[in-house]
Amino acid sequence: MVIKVFVATSSGSIAIRKKQQEVVGFLEANKIDFKELDIAGDEDNRRWMRENVPGEKKPQNGIPLPPQIFNEEQYCGDFDSFFSAKEENIIYSFLGLAPPPGSQGTEKAEDSGENEGQDENREDAGNPPEAQQN
Known about the structure:
By secondary structure, the protein is an alpha+beta fold. The protein is built from six helices and four strands; from the N terminus they run E-H-E-H-E-E-H-H-H-H. It has helices at 14-29, 43-52, 79-87, 91-95, 106-121, 129-133, and strands spanning 3-7, 34-38, 68-71, 74-78. A four-stranded mixed beta sheet has the order 2-1-3-4, sandwiched between helices. The longest helix is centred in the first third of the chain and has 16 residues, at 14-29. The protein is globular, with a radius of gyration of 20 Å. Belongs to the SH3BGR family. Residues 94-134 are annotated as: Disordered.
């Protein structure tokens, strides 16, 4: 399965370019296989993206803006839903992918950093506050 990210390489909007860069950068950093498909220079890509974004996900004007993310033909979402999935540590589920072997996706990597700090404080957990200060 290949993730398809529809982008506009000649977008004049800085906000759209930043969103596209964030999605592509995240996928590259996590070694997730994807294809970047330009809707600015390829009418077929633009038509396919517009036809395959579900109606309830299209903006009021009916024209979805990039980046739009698909897993093959299955719609995953736009930048806002990508960002939410990333923040909630459910990005592999969002993309319709199995997490890499030996992990639970991004959840493991982020949780381990939080737990290290908690482990250091466990020795003092059973002692009264007076004993900790000595």
